[in-house]
Design brief:
Order of helices and strands: HHHHHHHHHHHHHHH
Pfam family, one: SNAP
Helix content: over 70%
Radius of gyration: 26 Å
Number of helices: 15
CATH superfamily of one domain: Tetratricopeptide repeat domain
Distance between the termini: 76 Å
Membrane topology: Peripheral membrane protein
Largest sheet: none
Keywords: ER-Golgi transport, Membrane, Protein transport, Transport
Number of strands: 0
CATH architecture of one domain: Alpha Horseshoe
Protein name: Soluble NSF attachment protein
Organism: Lobosporangium transversale
Length: 287
């Protein structure tokens, strides 16, 4: 099978889709056109002509919509997005949005959430647009929550919190980290992650520059989980809070180095800690 064959199939499908005949119903012509477009889309896919494959699958989906075959159209738009993703992430997002529109109208929110999560992933990894990724993951989290898919909802919500902090939206990050932590208190499978959520939320509190709020937050985390006060994460938060209160950069740096030696700090935490370090003493110097 060649690209020439795919082009011929598309031309045949275009002609079929726009034809008028006394002998065939419109549904019949759209059905035949959809089959031809789908076949052409698969040939293009095998030839790694990703844009042409996506375009052709979208044409097939439009035929299916004209026949009222909404579920099939949603699946075809998803197939289009898989081809587009190889060459045109923005087109992949548009195809997924078309599928999601159908899925939400059909009340299929679990499936819609999965593809909304896919959109978040494209914005995150392909387009490096954290603002749009955050919005997509937040919508996915809400839909998963509505379908009682708690673990999937939390996974997306943690993405939202992570990106919010990277964008300097610390209050939003705190809300999401604390929300997931609260929901995980009575879940034995998720309880081991509490200290990580509390640490991240605590760092965001400190990064806001509101020391009183940060102290109150750490106390609250200790009340929420009685084991937290004995963790290295809690002791780390308390030590860097003391350094911030004392405007002591050396004490802050020593606390970070000590923690990092036993628990390697990832890039996200390192960035937040650098923000905190850069803010030490600024408030007092303004007085």
């Amino acid at each position: 099978m060649s690209e020439r064959e795919a082009q011929e199939l598309v031309a045949k499908a275009d002609k079929k889709a726009t034809s008028s005949s006394w002998f065939f119903s419109s549904t019949s012509k759209y059905e035949e056109a959809a089959e031809l477009y789908t076949k052409a889309g698969n040939i293009y896919k095998m030839a790694k002509r990703w844009k042409e494959s996506g375009d052709t699958f979208c044409k097939a989906a439009e035929m299916q919509l004209k026949m009222g075959e909404k579920d099939e159209a949603a699946n075809t738009f998803i197939n289009a997005s898989k081809s587009y993703k190889k060459s045109s992430p923005q087109d992949a997002i548009m195809s997924l949005e078309q599928a999601i529109l159908i899925l939400t109208e059909r009340g299929r929110f679990q499936s819609a959430a999965k593809h909304q999560e896919d959109i978040g992933s494209i914005y995150e990894s392909e387009l490096i647009d954290l603002e749009q990724a955050m919005r997509a993951y937040e919508t996915a989290a809400d839909w998963y929550a509505g379908e009682s898919s708690t673990a999937l909802s939390h996974k997306c919500m943690l993405k939202v919190a992570t990106f919010a902090a990277q964008l300097g939206q610390y209050e939003k990050a705190i809300e999401k980290f604390e929300g997931v932590a609260s929901a995980s208190l009575d879940n034995q499978l998720m309880k081991w992650s509490l200290k990580e959520y509390f640490l991240k939320a605590g760092l965001c509190h400190i990064a806001t520059g509101d020391s009183v709020s940060a102290h109150n937050a750490v106390e609250r985390y200790c009340d929420m989980d009685v084991t937290f006060s004995s963790t290295r994460e809690c002791q780390f938060l308390q030590s860097i809070l003391t350094a911030v209160d004392n405007s002591d950069v050396n004490q802050f740096t020593a606390s970070v180095v000590e923690f990092d030696q036993l628990t390697k700090l990832d890039n996200w935490k390192t960035k937040i800690l650098l923000e905190i370090k850069n803010g030490i003493g600024k408030e007092s110097s303004l007085i």
